[in-house]
Amino acid sequence: MKLILLGPPGAGKGTQAAFICQKYGIPQISTGDMLRAAVKAGTPLGLQAKAVMDSGALVSDDIIIGLVKERIVQPDCANGFLFDGFPRTIPQAEAMKDAGVKLDYVLEIDVPFDAIIERMSGRRSHPASGRTYHITFNPPKVAGQDDVTGEPLVQRDDDREETVRKRLEVYSQQTRPLVDYYSGWAAREPAAAPKYRAIEGTGTVEQITERALAALGS
Ligand code: AP5
Ligand code: ZN
């Protein structure tokens, strides 16, 4: 199974990715998590990416495409993978097509922008695993601690309200065009196109997981 989770910042891509990846036994490839790991490790890429991410803008297509191409040839991707937060621009999508990546599904999670600010302000994450919580909507078992490791949870630097607004603007301008790109692919090239499915991303985490798995035919 090879699929893309598409949706605005805060749509719940990371939250739902965990369930879908477990169900299909595939790795989650989150370019955001990869960049945050590079920032934490202080690599040259991380140093370059940090300022861009904190501003809410996108890291350059060349860097991202290079990272993903290296990642998808790793042995754990033999049965497929889930892209979370990638592709985010038309050139990134075209690069996957040119590389011969044959996708099964594109799953869009749709959430109105006004619900997103509230989700981001309460988000807490476990950086090592990418597990994501919300202090009200999806709390950890013990406040401030990851459910599995007990390690401390952190707030992302780019979850400040003004950065979230900028990220939503960048989504509308640079990423939203992918909705037409992927949903229109079947009309252009029926044999090569992934199945396009869109689900409503408001409701409880469990309700959305049910919708997602149903949309993927399981
Ligand atoms: P990235 O890490 O990809 O961030 P994003 O797309 O902005 O998405 P988020 O991680 O913010 O949201 P999510 O949809 O995963 O939601 P989550 O499940 O956490 O990218 C960060 C930055 O890296 C970018 O701005 C860019 O600079 C750079 N970057 C990354 N990829 C790139 C690329 N391909 N090209 C260029 N640059 C790139 O949920 C959000 C919150 O809501 C959580 O607290 C969660 O618990 C809560 N929640 C989830 N579901 C529900 C629900 N049903 N009800 C209530 N709350 C819920
Ligand atoms: Zn995420």
From TrEMBL:
Keyword ATP-binding among UniProt keywords: yes
EC number of this enzyme: 2.7.4.3
UniProt cross-references to InterPro entries, sorted A to Z: Adenyl_kin_sub (IPR006259), Adenylat/UMP-CMP_kin (IPR000850), Adenylat_kinase_CS (IPR033690), Adenylate_kinase_lid-dom (IPR007862), P-loop_NTPase (IPR027417)
Binding site for ATP: G10, A11, G12, K13, G14, T15, R123, T132, Y133, G203
Cellular localization per UniProt: Cytoplasm
Family indicated by similarity: Belongs to the adenylate kinase family.
Entry text on domains: Consists of three domains, a large central CORE domain and two small peripheral domains, NMPbind and LID, which undergo movements during catalysis. The LID domain closes over the site of phosphoryl transfer upon ATP binding. Assembling and dissambling the active center during each catalytic cycle provides an effective means to prevent ATP hydrolysis.
Identification of the protein by name: Adenylate kinase
Species of origin: Ottowia pentelensis
